[in-house]
Amino acid sequence: ASATSAPPGVPAPKYSPSGRPKIIFNNRSPSFDEFIQSARASQLEGLSGSVPDGSTAKANVPSYLFPALHAAAQPRQSLGQGRKYFIEVYGCQMNVNDTEVLMAILNEAGYARTHTVEEASVIFLMTCSIRENAEKKIWRRLKHYKSLGESNQSRTAPLVGVLGCMAERLKDKLLDTDKLVDVVCGPDAYRSLPHLLSVAEESMSGVANVLLSADETYADITPVRLHPNQVSVHLSIMRGCNNMCSFCIVPFTRGNERSRPIDSIVQEVEKLNQQGIREIMLLGQNVNSYRDESEYRSYSGVETSPPPQSTDPSQPTIMSRGFKTIYKTKYGGRRFADLMDAVAQVNPEIRIRFTSPHPKDFPDELLHLIRDRPNLCSNLHLPVQSGSNTVLERMRRGYTREAYLDLVKLARETIPGVTLSTDMIVGFCGETEAEFRDTADLMHQVQYDMAYMFAYSMREKTHAHRRYTDDVPEADKARRLTEIIDIFHQHARTRNQALLHQPQLVLVDGYSKKHDCWSGRTDGNHKVFIQS
């Protein structure tokens, strides 16, 4: 077989043009699981590192694949024995949760975590692709670790693995650039990582599994916490995003939406309650579009007859008033409000938060539930992205400025003392000064308690990359960003000062070395420093 053809029974990965192969598994090729199954089948035929003379398999399988097949055929539990991994985490809370899932998978395979690079057999970077600066930081770290490996001749250089969204977006470039990376693993492929590492150790040019899944939620894996003594944890309830906003890379790096069953989430909350956890952040790329479409069961696991109202297969998604979606409407299943009600009842003393939501998925029932359940925190993240109707249309957000402001008004009328945060982008494709002024005006109107503000960064593969030009000068982006940051600080300072001398229930989360005192957060997610 040539270097660009696959043997019978072995999926056709993508090879490097010459020399040892670079193997990439993605949604255009058979899966890595199929590769492992083929490897085990081949091993039974005698392909365990050598092939008997006269074997028909010898003619069918390239010799350079023997080590990879042998590595892929090994049982998971033995793959990491005697090996340690070091991991750096960048990006959002979902990356933190993914890291904790990944650690459980690696531990089960025999790997042990180390906090020092010098002890590591493998170095992982959990990456973010949401903005260009995030990726630039990762490239710098990869070059740093490459130089460390070259400068230390006294030990075998560790494997370097890139995980997360950057792995999904730049798999070829990561493997091809100066041999900086040995393993690339996308967000839906973490179960395969122990075998990927084993294959990479067999002198490959690199191996990647970036297959996006239609159903992977890691619901059966109990995460290993990065910080075991913390009182607040993240819990992933769904993955992926269907919104396809024109500026956003997430649907291309995380795939379509799929949700964990309510049963598995409530069971995990019950375990966390037994461990003394006192705050849980429910996570998802579009968390409040959660929809459990599994069997008609109550969250206690008992059959319900008739099914709960929200499982009616004819019942469409209820969205915020005046909002729409460009994606197909969901029907049936149990909604985010059903999940929130279930987890709130596990222990009324556990605070429940959630991120990151979309404003379209705040129906009245959800706002009323947050009002009525004291342990559902009165802090809503309402990412608006722009205050201009024309920019919102180019962004494909599915709402107008007026509909968004109506939602803000309804939230404040429904939930006493609610605090609001947002995401804001300035300098999106074609943004004029008048459109920016609409954004600045909205910031003045809403007066957010917290805001995450950014200058637009074009991402390849997105709708904006295909349809628009990133034509706002960088100087204008910087000026506009500075202005909305100043507006935010002006109003946040006023809102914070209004809280002085008011009693607040604070969950203490640790000791701040910087401020030399204990710190914690209020129900509204204000950071508080407690002087002793």
TrEMBL record:
One of its GO terms (biological process) is regulation of primary metabolic process. Residues 1-21, 294-318 are annotated as: Disordered. Keywords: 4Fe-4S, Iron, Iron-sulfur, Metal-binding, S-adenosyl-L-methionine. One of its GO terms (cellular component) is mitochondrion. It comes from the Eukaryota. The keyword 4Fe-4S applies. The keyword 4Fe-4S applies. Coiled coil: none annotated. Belongs to the methylthiotransferase family. MiaB subfamily. This is Uncharacterized protein. It comes from Dimargaris cristalligena.
